[in-house]
Amino acid sequence: MTYGTSEGQTEKIADVIADVLRARGHDVHVLDIKEAGHAIPEGYDGVIVGASVHVGKHDKHVVDFVRRNHGSLSGVPTAFFSVSLAAHGDQTEAERYLEQFKDETGWRPERTALFGGALLYTHYGFLKRHLMKRIADDKPGSLGTDTSRDYVYTEWDGVKRFAEDFAAELEAAAA
Question: Which domains can be identified in the chain, with CATH numbers?
Answer without folding.
Answer: 2-117+157-174 (3.40.50.360), 119-152 (no CATH)
